Structures are given as C-alpha cells and as structure tokens.
Amino acid sequence: MISSWLFIILTVLATFAPSILATDYVVGDDKGWTINFDYQAWARGKMLFVGDNLVFNYPKGVQNVYKVNGTGFQECSAPLDSVPLTSGKDVINLATSGRKWYICGVSRHCLDAGQKLAITVFPSSFAPSPSPTSENSDRKFSAPSPSPTWGYSN
Predict the structure, then answer these.
(1) In the prediction, which pLDDT does 17 show?
(2) Alpha-helical runs (H) found in 1-144
(3) Alpha carbons 4 and 38: distance in angstroms, whole number
(4) Is the pLDDT of residue 13 over 70?
(5) How many CB atoms are located within 10 Å of the residue 65 CB?
(6) Which stretches does DSSP call E strand in the chain?
(7) Minimal CA–CA distance to 99: which of 124, 71, 120, 123?
(8) Rounded CA gap, 53 and 41, in Å?
C-alpha cells in the first residue's frame, strides 16, 4: 500500500517538477529586446533548460521576434511563411533541447544593429537542483553524477 502511494507521489513530482523549476529569462534584462545590444554576451554563461521561458519585452510596433534556423540567423532573414511575434511582451516556452535562434525582422535591426539571439537549450534532466539559498535565475550548470545505467536503453 505504501509503495503504491510512493509511486503515485513520485509520478506526480516527475510530471510537474520541470514546470515548477522553470525560469523566465527576460532577454536583454532591463534593456529588453532592442537594437545595439550584445545578446550573445547576455546569453553567455546562462544555462537554459527545457521548460524555461524566454521573455522578449519591447515597445509594441517598434520591434518583433522571429524564430529562425541557423541560416536565417546568419543571414538575418526569416522564412517568407513565418509569422512574427509582435505583442511587445512575447513569451517563448523552450519546449525542446538544442540550438535556438531569434531575430528582429523590423527594417535592418538584425543586420545593421545586431538584434539577434542564439542560445542552447539543455534537456531538463541536466538541470541542477536548486539550493535552498539560491534563486533559479542564478543557477549554474553542474554535471550530473555518473549513473550505472548511462548509455543503456530500455
């Protein structure tokens, strides 16, 4: 009976823990999403995990946000069929791991003013456990302990 309850509790925790531990990252911090800001420097050292959110703050009608691929990032061009985010308070949930690229499609903001962001999102299984004395936004990466099941598939 106790093992059944323990299983249920662990299942619920495993399901909801990633969203509870999720962190909102305001792109550009207090500068927001704007021109002439070094977003690569802003992203350096940040460990973003599946379940975290990017928040793009900017004056509505002045900027926008396109999710692009690596080529679109390098060329500052969005696919013709893509739709920009334009609310001025855009929240993007990082639902999958891997490289992600974002640009501003207004005028030549990306090309001439560097308004673009490239990040790497790590699987939530690599997220460090928060310590009781630190906040999630200050988390740093620490490698997980080796497991005897690493490299084996079930």
Answers:
(1) 44
(2) 2-20, 39-43, 70-75, 109-113
(3) 52
(4) no
(5) 25
(6) 24-26, 48-49, 53-57, 66-68, 89-93, 98-103, 116-122
(7) 120
(8) 18
